[in-house]
């Protein structure tokens, strides 16, 4: 967010200068784009004077409570306005909880007490505590409130969990841990309590104090615990740098690895779909329920101790020893990120109506998504990496290419129609002809195979001396294959097939297997090839960091330079006026057809492996080694003034509540 503030400031200053140096304008534009695409933090709460240990959000998502080592609890609106400061503790406050009905707050402190704060008849929390729960013999690290607000659980350095009535009466003390109890949670039905301890265990207790079971498996202290909305899953955060997911019966479901230091806290979204973890490595990780790392939130300048998720699951709040609470929307400002694969995404396709995105991943699956980022379905069946994906022009069929040497044909509803097994090595790409009646596949067996839509093999094209990673059709012959002589078809309609190979060449073929010409000029492996809509220009993308544009007779038109690493994909827009390229330098570049660079899109955190235009040319989708697909709206990303507006709107709450920056968007 700091980068976004400074980028907006620089753009505003540039506007005030009038005619600025073009090089400076380009630099500012690049910085602003990168900041807008990459920013997921949208607000920051900065009024505490010491480390912030915990954060909680109420069920109505209109109140945030934060607990600090400055001995206070602060209450905020979700837009960052400070409502009040609750004083009363005599030492640092380690944890905070808000009741389900929003009328009670419980705080746990190093002063060995739990304090209860009630909302008055005007809806305001009293500045002084309503009750102080005394009984622990050491600092209290964790606190939780039952769903009916009638019971409070607390965990302490005295190795116990205490259960209290809301009136402050002690119900019972749970004594089975052999070290500090750092965290406690109460199940949604109020019948079970979970505790996390420095003895490396999680314990599950009945509400009457009976020990139900002990979860063992962590290799270091367990700092915190959360229970899923359905009460069936427990998440634990540990000093062994992991989050573990357990069934309530004690069965280990999954271990989430991704942090580089101790994990102190964990939260489960109210819809049960995502998990957030806070770590001493200064980051918050967001995970899918299956254990896929969705995103890492970076920005804190010290250890992160607290984490909470809003009821809609779209906002994460984190509390840090840097004295701040930060609010994040992991989906960012204008980018739609498709998260769910647990390995790199090598290929992406968009349906003819623009409503469905298909992604192919090395996790051996194909996923179908709505363009808003929601998952439609996952197609399973391949036994190795999936490297190619295509959707037929009528939108009814999906073809996937895999390192298991097969192509699978799927109905759009996800049912498997047929498996094509004629390749003798990994299949790396697949594409439909423009009329949908033919497919071409490229393989590490150095061949291209042509297929009828029903999976019948038509022809095998041989000539490359190394693996073939890319294949493309020009417009389809109007003549039906095999009915009229192919040479007549080529002469009439100009149909050709282009292939890109690690032998550093592009080859142009007739569908009958006749080699038309070989395009030589790249100095390294060629990964991708595209043919312009009018069939007159071929674009090739190479590991030599360039894109080359060729006439169909093999004449080199120009070379597009600008990428800082190998280029893995290239595609023409439907109108042929733009070219998009995807590179291992983590960027997508947009070019005019004459080779002029329009803009560079920076949003991925790893190499970009594939890119595709939507049929209407209004958006592009990019697939990356960061396991995600990003949907870019071209009207938004190409309009710099619009980007400035998006950036200002994104951080409006932060600007409004922090006087030192509130003039950034309105100098």
From TrEMBL:
<protein>
    <submittedName>
        <fullName>Uncharacterized protein</fullName>
    </submittedName>
</protein>
<dbReference type="InterPro" id="IPR011047">
    <property type="entry name" value="Quinoprotein_ADH-like_sf"/>
</dbReference>
<dbReference type="InterPro" id="IPR019775">
    <property type="entry name" value="WD40_repeat_CS"/>
</dbReference>
<feature type="repeat" description="WD">
    <location>
        <begin position="297"/>
        <end position="329"/>
    </location>
</feature>
<feature type="repeat" description="WD">
    <location>
        <begin position="133"/>
        <end position="165"/>
    </location>
</feature>
<dbReference type="InterPro" id="IPR036322">
    <property type="entry name" value="WD40_repeat_dom_sf"/>
</dbReference>
<feature type="repeat" description="WD">
    <location>
        <begin position="174"/>
        <end position="205"/>
    </location>
</feature>
<feature type="repeat" description="WD">
    <location>
        <begin position="215"/>
        <end position="246"/>
    </location>
</feature>
<dbReference type="Pfam" id="PF00400">
    <property type="entry name" value="WD40"/>
</dbReference>
<dbReference type="InterPro" id="IPR001680">
    <property type="entry name" value="WD40_rpt"/>
</dbReference>
<feature type="repeat" description="WD">
    <location>
        <begin position="601"/>
        <end position="635"/>
    </location>
</feature>
<keyword id="KW-0677">Repeat</keyword>
<feature type="repeat" description="WD">
    <location>
        <begin position="519"/>
        <end position="551"/>
    </location>
</feature>
<dbReference type="InterPro" id="IPR020472">
    <property type="entry name" value="WD40_PAC1"/>
</dbReference>
<feature type="repeat" description="WD">
    <location>
        <begin position="420"/>
        <end position="452"/>
    </location>
</feature>
<feature type="repeat" description="WD">
    <location>
        <begin position="379"/>
        <end position="410"/>
    </location>
</feature>
<feature type="repeat" description="WD">
    <location>
        <begin position="86"/>
        <end position="127"/>
    </location>
</feature>
<feature type="repeat" description="WD">
    <location>
        <begin position="560"/>
        <end position="592"/>
    </location>
</feature>
<feature type="repeat" description="WD">
    <location>
        <begin position="338"/>
        <end position="370"/>
    </location>
</feature>
<feature type="repeat" description="WD">
    <location>
        <begin position="45"/>
        <end position="79"/>
    </location>
</feature>
<feature type="repeat" description="WD">
    <location>
        <begin position="256"/>
        <end position="288"/>
    </location>
</feature>
<keyword id="KW-0853">WD repeat</keyword>
<dbReference type="InterPro" id="IPR015943">
    <property type="entry name" value="WD40/YVTN_repeat-like_dom_sf"/>
</dbReference>
